[in-house]
C-alpha cells in the first residue's frame, strides 16, 4: 500500500493538501535542478589533462539573481500559507457544538455540555480517576446533563465543532491525521481548535506529543456520524451515565 | 606565549595538555566514541521499530536479537521473554538525540575543528587562552559520566526526549536530574571554548591576515562561537530552573492544578509550561546552526581545493553565514506552531523562517558555482563534501514544508520532522564531519588515510543513509507520529510495517559500514602512507608547516599576502598560490 497522505475529511483539509502539493512541486523542481546540475558539473568538469580550471571569484549579477528569485518565491509561499493559517487558526466560525477534551496519561476525557450547552464547573480537587476523571462538580446545575466519556469522541458530520483542549498532567497533542491538524494540550491553559468533519466514519485520535510510558497507546476513537445518530448516541450516553 | 620546547612529561603532553592540537585530537577521539554509542542506540531504536510485535513470531531472528539485548539490559525488559519496555524505548531515543547532539556532532564540529584548525589557519602559535581550552575539554568526560550514569539509577536515564519538555521532564526520576547536570557541564565547556575562539580569531591573526582573508572554515567557527556565547547561557538558565523545579519544588514550568497519576499537585503556583519551550528553543534553534555552520565552512574549504578554483562569491558566503547566524535567533518558535501559542506569533515566525532559507540557498548556489568549470578531483574528502551539498539541499527543502504553518500543523511531531532533521544533521553535519576528518587527517597524524577504503566507506554510507532516512518522509506524510514505541496500535498505520523493516535493515547496514571507517582510521594512524606538509596542494596556512605540526605550530609566524582560495591563477606554473608566498 501507498505510504502517503491519508484521506482528508475536514473542511480545511483540501486547502492544506493543495498547499502541501504546491510546496512539493516547488521543492521537487529545485531538488531536481540542483542535483542534476551537481551531477552534470561532476561529469563535465572532471579533471582533464591540459584543461586548467577557470579562474573566477564570482559574478555579482548572477548572485543577485539567485538571491532574489528564492526570496520572491519564499515570500509568496509565506503569504499563501498565511491565508490558510488565518482560516485554520483565526477566529472560529459559529460553532454548532462545543466539546472539552482533557488529556491525561494516557487517555482522552471527552466532556459534552449536554442539552443546556453549558459546561458544568470542574476542579482538580474533585478528580477521582475511577469515577470522575475530569473533576466535574455534580452539584453545579450546569453539570446535571453533562456527559463525560473516555476515549470516545463523536462529532456530527458537516457541523462546526469547537474543541476546548486541556491537560491534567503533562503535554499531550490532539492529532487526527484525516483532519490535517494537531493541537497541543498544554496543562495550565485551554487551547481551542475548531473543526468541521466532512465525511462520516470511524477514525483514530493519536497523541502526537511524548507524554510518558504509555504515549504510544494513548489512542482515542473518533466517530463522525449523522445528526440523528449523534443525538441518539448522546442520549444513550446520558442515560447510561445516570444509571 | 609559545615556548620553544613543549612539555615533556607524558601527562602534561598528552593528557592535561594545553596544546590546541592535542586538545583537538582529544575531542576527536572522545566524540567519535560517543558517535559510536549514539549510533548503537539508534540501532536499538530501529530494532524495535522494525519488529514492534516480534513476540507474535517467536522463532524469528528479530526475536532472538531482542533476547540478546535483554541479556545486556535486563532493566529495559522487565517482563522478560525479549519484550522491550516502552519506557526503555523512550530512554533510547532520548539518549540517542542527546548524545548525538551534545556529545558527538557539536564537539566534533566545534571542539575538534575549532581547536585544531583556528590557530593553524590564522597563523597563531596556540589559542589565546590555552589553559581555559584544556578546562573546556576536561569538562566533557565528567559530563559524559553524569549523563550515562542515569542508566544505572532507579528509573533509568532521562526519557522525556532530547527536548525535555516540562512538565513531563519534571515528573521523571533522577535520570532527568543527571541529564540537566550533564547539560550544564557541557554548556559550560562550550562557553569556555567559544570565548577562546572569539578571542583567538580577533587577536592572534598572523600579520596580513585581514578578516576578509580568513578561510571560510575559520569564519564559520568564529560566528558559531558568537552564537554559542549568546545562546548557551539561556539553555543553562533554563536547565537550572528545571533543576530547581525538580529538586526544590519551585514552579517555573509547573502550572497550578496538575493532577499527575491521580494525585493533585498542591505545591505548584503559577508556572508556565510554554516558558520551557521558549527558553529551550531560544538555545536549541541557534544550536542547529552551531551544528551546520562549521560543516558549511569545512565544505567551502574543500570544494575549492579539489576543484582547483577560487571559492565562488567569497564575500557573499561570509555574509550568508552572518545572516544565518543573525536570523537564527529569530526563528525559534517555529518549533511551536502546534503548541497553542498565539497564532499571530506563528505568522511572524513563519516569515522569519522562510527568510532564513534565502542565505542557505545562496550558499548552495555558490558551491555549485565553485564546481562550475573547475578541474574536479573526486578524493574521499571531496566526495563527502559533495554529499554534504546534495543532502543538505534535501534537509533545507524539506524545511520549507514545516516552515509553512498550515502544513506544519499536520507534519509537526511526525516522522517527516525526523527525516528532515536527519538530512540536516547526518546528511549535512555528519558528511561535513567526515569530509573534515578525511581532509585534515594527514595534518593531524602525518599519514594519509587509505583512499580505496575511504571511498568504499563513503559510497556505502551514502547509500545506506538514504535508504534509512528518505522513507521517513513517507512515514510522516502518512501520519506516523515520532517517538512511538509501537505504531501497530493504530489502524491508519497498519501498512507501514514493511517500510519500517526495510529501514531497519538499512540502518543496521549503515552501522556495520562504519567499521570500515574505524578500520581505516586505526590502520592509517600507524601504517598509512606518510603525508608531506601539503598533500592536497592547498593554500591555507596549516599546510605550510610539518604534518603533524610541532608545538607552537610554526617555526616562524607566517606573513599573509592574499586570500585563501587562489587556485589556477592564470600565468602561473603551479595551480595553487599559498597565502604566505610573496608571489
Short précis:
The complex is a heterodimer of chains A (243) and B (583). Chain A has 243 residues and is α+β, with helices and mostly antiparallel strands.
- Output the CATH homologous superfamily of chain B: Cytochrome c oxidase-like, subunit I domain
- What's the overall average pLDDT of chain A, rounded? 96
Measured as a percent range, the helix fraction of chain B is: 55-70%
| CATH C-level label of the largest domain in chain A | Mainly Beta
Give the number of DSSP strands of chain A: 10
Work out the radius of gyration of chain B: 24 Å
How many structurally independent domains of chain A? 2
The biggest beta sheet of chain B is recorded as:
2 strands, antiparallel
Walk me through what this model shows.
The complex is a heterodimer of chains A (243) and B (583). Chain A is of the alpha+beta class. Chain A has 2 domains: 13-89, Helix Hairpins (Orthogonal Bundle); 97-242, Immunoglobulin-like, CATH 2.60.40.420. Chain A has 3 helices and 10 strands, in the order H-H-E-E-E-E-E-E-E-E-E-E-H. In chain A, the strands form 2 sheets. Chain A has a 5-stranded mixed β-sheet with strand order 3-2-1-5-8. In chain A, strands 4-10-9-6-7 form a 5-stranded mixed β-sheet. In chain A, strand 6 (172-176) and strand 7 (181-185) form a beta hairpin. Chain A is elongated and about 95 Å long. The model of chain A has no long low-confidence stretch (mean pLDDT 96). With 583 residues, chain B is an all-alpha fold. Chain B has a single domain, classed as Cytochrome C Oxidase, Chain A. Chain B has helices at 10-15, 20-50, 61-72, 86-122, 130-138, 140-149, 168-171, 174-203, 216-247, 273-290, 293-307, 314-327, 343-371, 380-403, 405-411, 415-445, 451-477, 497-527; strands at 259-260, 263-264. Chain B has a two-stranded antiparallel ribbon with strand order 1-2. In chain B, a hairpin with a 2-residue loop joins strand 1 (259-260) and strand 2. In chain B, helix 4 packs parallel to helix 8 and helix 16 (415-445) packs antiparallel against helix 17 (451-477). The two termini of chain B are 30 Å apart. In chain B, 61% of the residues are buried. At the A-B interface, helix 1, helix 2, strand 7 and strand 9 of A face helix 4, strand 1, helix 12, helix 13 and helix 14 of B.
Amino acid at each position: 500500500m501507498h505510504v502517503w497522505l491519508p484521506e482528508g475529511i475536514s473542511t480545511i483539509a483540501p486547502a492544506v493538501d493543495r498547499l502541501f502539493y504546491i510546496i512539493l512541486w516547488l521543492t521537487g523542481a529545485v531538488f531536481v535542478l540542483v542535483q542534476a546540475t551537481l551531477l552534470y558539473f561532476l561529469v563535465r568538469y572532471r579533471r582533464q589533462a591540459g584543461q586548467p580550471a577557470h579562474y573566477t571569484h564570482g559574478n555579482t549579477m548572477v548572485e543577485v539573481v539567485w538571491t532574489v528569485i528564492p526570496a520572491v518565491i519564499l515570500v509568496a509561499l509565506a503569504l499563501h500559507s498565511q491565508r490558510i493559517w488565518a482560516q485554520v487558526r483565526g477566529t472560529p466560525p459559529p460553532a454548532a457544538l462545543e466539546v472539552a477534551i482533557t488529556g491525561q496519561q494516557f487517555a482522552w476525557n471527552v466532556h459534552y455540555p449536554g442539552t443546556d450547552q453549558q459546561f458544568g464547573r470542574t476542579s482538580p480537587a474533585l478528580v477521582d480517576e475511577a469515577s470522575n476523571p475530569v473533576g466535574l462538580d455534580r452539584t453545579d446545575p450546569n453539570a446535571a446533563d453533562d456527559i463525560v466519556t473516555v476515549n470516545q469522541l463523536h462529532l456530527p458530520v458537516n457541523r462546526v465543532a469547537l474543541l476546548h483542549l486541556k491537560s491534567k498532567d503533562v503535554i499531550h497533542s490532539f492529532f487526527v491525521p484525516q483532519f490535517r491538524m494537531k493541537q497541543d494540550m498544554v496543562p495550565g491553559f485551554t487551547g481551542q481548535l475548531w473543526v468541521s468533519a466532512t465525511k462520516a466514519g470511524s477514525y483514530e485520535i493519536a497523541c502526537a506529543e511524548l507524554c510518558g510510558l504509555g504515549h504510544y497507546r494513548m489512542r482515542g476513537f473518533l466517530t463522525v456520524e449523522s445528526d440523528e445518530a449523534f443525538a441518539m448516541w448522546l442520549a444513550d450516553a446520558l442515560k447510561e451515565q445516570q444509571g | 606565549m609559545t615556548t620553544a620546547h613543549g612539555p615533556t612529561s607524558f601527562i602534561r603532553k598528552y593528557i592535561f595538555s594545553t596544546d590546541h592540537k592535542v586538545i583537538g585530537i582529544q575531542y576527536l577521539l572522545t566524540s567519535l566514541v560517543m558517535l559510536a554509542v549514539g549510533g548503537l542506540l539508534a540501532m536499538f531504536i530501529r530494532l524495535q521499530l522494525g519488529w514492534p510485535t516480534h513476540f507474535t513470531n517467536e522463532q524469528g531472528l528479530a526475536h532472538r536479537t531482542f533476547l540478546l539485548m535483554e541479556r545486556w539490559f535486563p532493566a529495559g525488559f522487565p517482563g522478560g521473554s525479549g519484550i522491550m519496555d516502552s519506557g526503555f524505548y523512550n530512554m533510547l531515543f532520548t539518549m540517542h538525540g542527546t548524545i548525538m547532539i551534545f556529545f558527538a556532532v557539536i564537539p566534533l564540529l566545534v571542539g575538534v575543528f575549532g581547536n585544531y584548525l583556528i590557530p593553524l589557519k590564522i597563523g597563531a602559535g596556540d589559542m589565546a587562552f590555552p589553559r581555559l581550552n584544556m578546562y573546556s575539554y576536561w569538562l566533557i568526560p565528567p559530563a559524559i559520566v553524569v549523563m550515562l550514569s542515569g542508566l544505572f539509577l532507579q528509573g533509568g536515564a532521562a526519557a522525556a526526549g532530547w527536548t525535555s519538555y516540562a512538565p513531563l521532564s519534571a515528573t521523571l526520576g533522577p535520570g532527568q536530574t543527571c541529564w540537566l547536570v550533564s547539560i550544564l557541564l557541557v554548556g559550560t565547556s562550550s562557553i569556555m571554548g567559544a570565548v577562546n575562539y572569539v578571542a583567538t580569531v580577533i587577536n592572534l591573526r598572523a600579520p596580513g591576515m585581514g578578516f576578509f582573508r580568513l578561510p571560510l572554515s575559520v569564519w564559520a567557527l568564529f560566528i558559531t562561537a558568537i552564537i554559542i556565547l549568546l545562546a548557551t547561557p539561556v539553555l543553562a538558565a533554563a536547565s537550572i530552573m528545571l533543576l530547581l523545579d525538580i529538586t526544590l519544588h519551585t514552579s517555573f514550568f509547573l502550572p497550578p492544578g496538575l493532577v499527575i497519576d491521580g494525585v493533585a499537585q498542591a505545591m505548584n503556583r503559577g508556572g508556565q509550561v510554554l516558558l520551557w519551550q521558549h527558553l529551550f528553543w531560544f538555545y536549541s534553534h541557534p544550536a542547529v546552526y552551531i551544528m551546520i555552520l562549521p560543516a558549511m565552512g569545512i565544505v567551502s574549504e574543500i570544494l575549492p581545493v579539489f576543484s582547483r578554483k577560487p571559492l565562488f562569491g567569497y564575500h557573499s558566503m561570509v555574509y550568508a553565514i552572518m545572516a544565518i547566524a543573525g536570523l537564527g535567533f529569530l526563528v525559534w518558535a517555529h518549533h511551536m506552531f502546534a503548541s497553542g501559542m498565539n497564532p499571530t506569533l506563528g505568522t511572524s515566525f513563519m516569515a522569519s523562517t522562510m527568510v532564513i532559507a534565502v542565505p542557505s540557498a545562496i550558499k548552495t548556489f555558490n558551491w555549485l558555482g565553485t564546481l562550475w568549470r573547475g578541474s574536479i578531483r573526486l578524493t574521499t574528502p571531496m566526495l563527502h563534501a559533495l554529499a554534504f551539498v546534495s543532502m543538505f539541499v534535501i534537509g533545507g527543502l524539506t524545511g520549507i514544508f514545516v516552515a509553512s504553518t498550515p502544513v506544519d500543523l499536520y507534519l509537526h511531531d511526525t516522522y517527516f520532522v525526523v527525516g528532515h532533521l536527519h538530512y540536516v544533521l547526518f546528511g549535512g553535519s555528519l558528511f561535513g564531519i567526515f569530509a573534515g576528518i578525511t581532509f585534515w587527517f594527514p595534518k593531524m597524524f602525518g599519514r594519509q588515510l587509505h583512499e580505496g577504503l575511504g571511498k568504499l566507506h563513503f559510497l556505502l554510507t551514502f547509500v545506506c543513509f538514504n535508504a534509512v532516512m528518505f522513507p521517513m518522509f513517507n512515514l510522516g506524510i502518512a501520519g506516523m507520529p515520532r517517538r512511538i514505541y509501537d505504531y501497530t496500535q493504530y489502524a491508519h498505520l497498519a501498512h507501514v510495517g514493511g517500510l519500517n523493516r526495510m529501514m531497519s535493515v538499512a540502518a543496521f547496514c549503515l552501522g556495520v559500514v562504519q567499521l570500515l571507517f574505524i578500520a581505516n582510521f586505526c590502520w592509517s594512524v600507524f601504517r598509512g602512507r606518510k603525508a608531506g606538509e601539503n598533500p592536497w596542494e592547498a593554500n591555507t596556512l596549516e599546510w605550510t608547516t610539518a604534518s603533524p605540526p610541532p608545538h607552537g605550530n610554526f617555526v616562524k609566524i607566517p606573513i599573509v599576502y592574499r586570500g585563501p582560495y587562489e587556485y589556477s591563477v592564470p600565468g602561473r606554473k603551479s595551480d595553487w598560490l599559498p597565502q604566505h608566498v610573496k608571489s
